[in-house]
Amino acid sequence: MKTKALLFLIIIAYIIVGCSSHRVDSNKTSANIQNFLEPDENYLFIGFWKKNCSDNYGLAIEKAGDGLYSVSFCGPGGCMKSETNTSLTNNIAYRIINENTIEVKGKKGFSRYHRCL
């Protein structure tokens, strides 16, 4: 019985690790994200946004097309692949303060981010 339980846990761990590794793009990191961000005058919020510009992690906001943005968390180990796209301006999870400052709603309320790239 213990062998079956152990095998079950190993399978679950393999699934979790396998699924999560597909959600991270290790080619894009906080150190090189600027190489992937393509400015577009119709998409004012493209950039790398951080709570403090000295942080080595933050939010990469990229053009997703049709007036939408892709928002993904990036750190030294890679960027999480965005699973949804948003307009930012019509989404209650985001507050635009100005062209270089936004707030993002999390579990503990809104956090302020500044465009650093």
Question: In words, what does this structure look like?
Answer:
The protein is α+β, with helices and mostly antiparallel strands. The chain has a single domain (26-115), classed as Beta Barrel (Lipocalin). 17% of the residues lie in helices and 38% in strands. The protein has 1 helix and 9 strands. The protein has one helix at residues 2-21; strands spanning 24-25, 47-50, 58-65, 68-75, 78-80, 85-86, 94-98, 101-106, 109-115. Strands 1, 2, 3, 4, 5, 6, 7, 8 and 9 form a 9-stranded antiparallel beta sheet that branches. Strand 7 and strand 8 (101-106) form a beta hairpin. The radius of gyration is 17 Å and the shape is globular. Mean pLDDT is 85; it is low at 5-21.
